[in-house]
Amino acid sequence: MAVLPIRVLPDPILKQKAKRVRIIGDSVRKLVSDMIETMHSVPGRVGLAAPQVGISLRVIVIGMPEEGDIVLINPEVVRRKGERLVNEGCLSYPGYIGEIKRAESVTVKGLDQNRKKIRIKADELLAQALEHEIDHLNGVLYIDHLESIDKLRRIEVEETPL
Ligand SMILES: [Zn+2]
Fold this sequence. Notes:
Blueprint: H1 26-40, E1 47-49, E2 59-64, E3 68-81, E4 84-88, E5 96-102, E6 105-111, E7 117-123, H2 124-137, E8 152-154
Antiparallel strand pairs: 1-2, 2-3, 3-6, 4-5, 5-8, 6-7
Zinc ion binds at residues 90-92, 132, 136, 162.
């Protein structure tokens, strides 16, 4: 396992649509374990998408204290419900936080690293993290959802979540 460096804007990989994983084999499983280690290397991180570590593949990991680690390969949002305002930040755009709209709850499906089908219905921070990380696979960052630049404010780099 290894802690991988995080790509930050304006790295072009962050704006690319990531490719679907065709074969879940050893290389994808190694990527997943490196992503989990990278996510947990700094306290407070709750998720990571493969493009953030320089791999343009549809793989995300989520690590919420009370949920355990979640791995999703080729994840898809199958349902979004409601709308709410949230504060959001991104490791690939450190030092800022912004207010955007997210769904109140989402249902997401995908596969884990053992090819098991996963289906998650989530609300609160888990729903926000799932939408945020799946956006990364489509080359979308939370700042693309800002209504205006006034909704962005500076924070300490170490405090940047997601
Ligand atoms: Zn992010």
